[in-house]
Amino acid sequence: MKKYETVIGLEVHIELATKSKIFCSCSAEFGGEQNDHVCPACCGMPGMLPVTNKRVVDLGMTAGMMLNCEINRTTTFDKKNYYYPDLPCSYQTTQWFAPICVNGKVRIQTSKGEKDIRIKQIHMEEDAGKLVHDDWTDTSLVDYNRTSVPLIEIVSQPDFSSAEEVVAYLERLRSLLRFAKVSQCRMEQGSMRCDVNLSIREEGETKLGVRTEMKNMNSISAITRAIEYEVARHIDALENGTEELVQETRRWDDVKGKSYAMRSKETAGDYRYFPDPNVMPIVIDDEWFDSIKASLPEFPEVKKARFIDELGLSEYDADLITQSRAFCDCFEAAYKECGEAKEVANWLISDCMNMLNKKGSTMDQLKVDGTALGKLIKLVMESKVTRGNAKKILLVMDEETIDPEKYATENNFIVSNDTANIEKVIKEIVAADPKSVADYKGGKEKALMALFGKCMKTLKGNCDPQVLRKILLEEIDKA
Amino acid sequence: MKLYLTKSDCAMTNAVALDDMFLTKAMPTTAGSKMLDGYMSLFDAEVVTKLTEAGYEIAGKANVGEMAVDLLGETSYEGAVTDDNGTLLSASAEIAKEAKAVLCFDVNGAPRRAAAVSDLVFVKPTYGTVSRFGTVSSACSGETVGVMAKTVADAKAVLTAIAGHDDKDGTSLSDAQCEKILTTEKAVKKVAVAKSITASADDSVKADIEVAKKILSDNGVEVAEIDDEILTKAKAAWNILMSAELCNNVSRFDGVKYGYRSENYTTIEELYTNSRTEAFGELLKTMIIYGSDVLSTDNYMSFYDKAMRIRRVIAEKFAEIFTEYDAVMLPASSKKAFTKADTDANMYLAFDENLYTAPATITGLPAVVGGGVQLIGKAFSDSALMDAVKTIKEGK
Amino acid sequence: MERETLMLLEKFDQLSLTEEQRDAFLKFYDKQLEEKKALDAVDTENVERMVHVMPIMTVVREDEAKKIYSREDLQKGAPATSEGYWQVPRLVE
């Protein structure tokens, strides 16, 4: 068998984290009841005119800067024409002639080392709606909620030679863009989708082979399997003449593990692009450009190194926290408030993670305010609130904005210094349970824990455990 | 044959009618197309809101040619309006004779032609000074909301009510810019007559130009003929841009979301094709197909891109003319009357008549028709043009 | 223009012309080609294309979501709906 090499280029669509759609004011939130986030504009009715959402341009620029692109200081919108029921105006407003970003690069790390993937361009555009197929009536049903939700499309050069590189790139994109709050990049919700352009050629050959495109792949594992399948199919066709390769769009069926030629959705592929007369050119002046530049986050690996070197976090802790921008922000604010990096890291990694896991939320969905967390940690360190009660307060902090100290006071979570009361409670409990006292004196450590627990419960936890332990031991001695 | 789709009392002193390109909540909006038969908008056009706020009564709607791109409204699915001799009448013009004014959507010069053949006034203001929000778009880059009336004073009064910035229209200019069209900063003192365009019109039309020249001269205005060779190219260039933009704008009318749906389909392609084929008239179909041809990959550079460059050449030519002159005078149509027989013989007449109207359309410059002539001025000189047309009308 | 080209354009534009209309279109098209020659005669090599007639830039709005219209109202004039969806013939991928 001859030696072949794979050439892959990617087009990655990412839904931007905006409140409203790109050209109208409908909600851009994911989901919702069918056709609930729609207006005359996004269901293709006459009379509405597009007015560009500034945040889309902000995020487009942010993405470009995160991916080392040049920003086109004058960027324009164009119309792309084709008929399909999920496209209510029968045209998509996109960028063809002057996209917002060009010439970027992303460094990836694979088992073979580091490699730069070149970005050809990033353009802003509107998403299409969604179709549901109804088997009962044999019809298709159209939902325009997603219509005009803002997207960026990141077009790479054909620089990938394996599925591993593709996966490394997608994970890198996801990490950078989540960090910069450009998008949640949730593949399972379709806010990150990927078109894979793939061809095979003999090693040493400079001309590209026949290219097939697989559209709208939305999981890393499906992308890997699809690439592996396509490579095998292409090689089989070239080696054994099993089929004639044609340039086409294919659909990946992840259940069957096969790709199929799609019936051409968009007629003839001539999209008749032309400049949109209704959307004025966007000119990015220095002030705008600089404000976005200044808002960029540290890259996650830079943050991680700083957390380790300057704040003394372990490699493991720093790595985990820098998986998520929300965790980083919370960490830094909490550290600023209480000055205890390791302690904050513990709270995030054990307590916050547990809490999110129970809720089925992602790390980026952490809502705990960092400064408040810092205050809470201070309360614990000053023995004003027990750790157990602090955990309860943390749960509240993920639901609403509260001042931990005020909340603790109002809800009787402040550790009582009323030793008289503590002594009274302990005396009663010790007197009522001579068996446990005897057991402890007989060497059973567990018996002490039982007495301790009873006291704590009666005191509703509002007692410094050290103080409680000391008095309890004294009372047992006396008994 | 229908003049009005809905009608109240046009004789009221404050009655303003709309041609049927303006969306209204209270009345159907059809854009002259079977595609939108009975279509009810969920919102009013911005100009309708502004008129109401200014105390005008919306008298009703005037029939309009399909998507307002024909000669005089003859392609409306309601049929052409003619007099007993078969002369084409514009529904807007007929209503304008009764009402205070009619708002018209000037895409392909139809309201300017209508004003010319009906001896009315039509003001096509500077592009961007009147909101297009709530109009059924045909050719966005040149289409403009204008006012048809019996007198310059009425047209200006209504224009005053509708001009102004609108956040909902991304091409809308600032209030300060919009207000400029209502006051005469510099009166028209020097007029250039477009030589070859004028020469190509009928004798009766040329005679009107001669009369206007004399009246202006008598009023101390200097009149000279200029070489207008470049301006004649606006016609072919606008025909390209307009057809392409129209093709794109009406592609949303596909029988899926609202409007006409054919009964004859099983697949989505049949639904699209049969709905559009059954609902659109032949002129519109011609323009759609021509429009998609000029945008096709093979033709884009030589047609559409070329036309956009020609647009700049024409705009620069006007700028050069306006360093010396205050206005360009030319006819608004080749004839003083068109018959149904004319459009039956050549349904594309509007494409030819664009010789007279496209120069102002393609550049977005203000144009005022009245007294048998059309005056084009630089951006925001609308008021000065209106003054000059008033002088011509009064001198007749 | 070839008749086949015209038929492809019809397909693209979701229209179907009669043979008579095709004849008329082809004549119309020839005339447009003739008239376009006037444009070709102008050297536009160094002329920037003019998309917008008014030189205004950067018309943007703030990112605020609003809900004004109900689904019921938006679907009032719909030819076919089902459970809040617009309904079309089944699409095959």
Question: What's the helix and strand layout?
Answer:
The complex is a heterotrimer of chains A (479), B (396) and C (93).
Chain A: E1 4-15, E2 52-53, H1 54-66, E3 70-71, E4 74-75, E5 78-81, E6 91-94, E7 101-110, E8 113-126, E9 130-134, E10 139-143, E11 150-156, H2 163-179, E12 192-202, E13 212-217, H3 220-240, E14 248-253, E15 258-261, E16 274-275, E17 282-283, H4 286-295, H5 300-309, H6 315-321, H7 325-338, H8 341-359, H9 370-381, H10 387-397, H11 404-410, H12 419-432, H13 434-441, H14 445-458, H15 465-478
Parallel strand pairs in A: 13-14
Antiparallel strand pairs in A: 1-11, 1-12, 3-7, 4-17, 5-6, 5-16, 7-8, 8-11, 9-10, 12-13, 14-15
Helix pairs in contact in A: 1-4, 2-3, 5-6, 6-8, 7-8, 7-9, 9-10, 12-14, 12-15, 13-14, 14-15
Chain B: E1 4-7, E2 15-19, H1 46-53, E3 57-62, E4 81-82, E5 88-89, H2 91-96, E6 101-106, H3 110-118, E7 121-124, E8 144-149, H4 152-162, H5 175-180, E9 190-194, H6 195-199, H7 203-218, E10 222-226, H8 234-249, H9 268-279, H10 282-295, H11 301-324, E11 327-330, H12 340-345, H13 349-363, E12 367-370, E13 373-376, H14 382-395
Parallel strand pairs in B: 2-3, 2-6, 9-10, 9-11
Antiparallel strand pairs in B: 1-3, 4-5, 6-8, 7-8, 7-12, 11-13, 12-13
Chain C: H1 3-12, H2 19-40, E1 60-61, H3 71-74, E2 81-82, E3 85-89
Antiparallel strand pairs in C: 2-3
What features would you describe in this structure?
The complex is a heterotrimer of chains A (479), B (396) and C (93). Chain A is α+β, with helices and mostly antiparallel strands. Chain A has 15 helices and 17 strands. Helix content of chain A is 40%, strand content 20%. In chain A, the strands form four sheets. Chain A has a nine-stranded mixed β-sheet. In chain A, helix 5 runs antiparallel to helix 6 (315-321), helix 7 crosses helix 9 (370-381) and helix 13 runs antiparallel to helix 14 (445-458). The longest helix of chain A is centred in the middle third of the chain and has 21 residues, at 220-240. The mean pLDDT of chain A is 92. Chain B is of the alpha/beta class and 396 residues long. Chain B is globular, with a radius of gyration of 20 Å. Chain C is 39% helix and 10% strand. Chain C has helices spanning 3-12, 19-40, 71-74, and strands at 60-61, 81-82, 85-89. Chains B and C meet through helix 8, helix 9, helix 10, helix 11 and helix 13 of B and helix 1, helix 2 and strand 3 of C. Strand 2 of chain A pairs parallel with strand 1 of chain C, so a sheet runs across the interface.
